[in-house]
Amino acid sequence: MKNEHPKHIIAVSAYVTNENGELLLVKTHSRSDTWECPGGQVEMGEPLDEVVCREVLEETGIVIRPIGITGIYYNTTSYILSVVFKAAYVSGKIKIQPEEIREARFIKVKESNIEEYITRPHMRSRTIDAMNVKNFIPYETWEVEPYQLTGRLEGDWNEG
């Protein structure tokens, strides 16, 4: 058998709250049974922190700044590696892309009411992890040849 490269999808999402502590959530056409944190698929060569900003802006009209990674999750059925970021709200008002997103809004979500909004258990656990994160996972972006660090997120608790 020929030695093939594994084929996985990498996705990102953002846990971002507004000044009232409400969580930005979306409903997609393909998963209309649940709310979820906004995000999407990484294209070849895109740094993850840039993708999460792009996806949130495209889906919701909200500008964010990633602070750190709260968790990494893998779906063995669809081969999706999902990276969840905590991000700070920077600016913007909700404006959805109707061809992709059905609805977006800031919602007051707590562990006690999360099941009312996030009905899929794997998405719920990611959101609870992000809600309760104590330490971020460092994230670096590098160019190779020559080696050059182009970005690093370590998480700053004073900014989010």
TrEMBL record:
The keyword Hydrolase applies. GO terms for molecular function: hydrolase activity. It comes from the Bacteria. Its cofactor is Mg(2+). InterPro entries: Nudix_hydrolase (IPR020476), NUDIX_hydrolase-like_dom_sf (IPR015797), NUDIX_hydrolase_CS (IPR020084), NUDIX_hydrolase_dom (IPR000086). It holds the Pfam family NUDIX. Transmembrane segments: none annotated. Gene3D superfamilies: Nucleoside Triphosphate Pyrophosphohydrolase. Residues 7-132 form the Nudix hydrolase domain. Keywords: Hydrolase. Belongs to the Nudix hydrolase family. This is NUDIX hydrolase. It comes from Lederbergia citri.
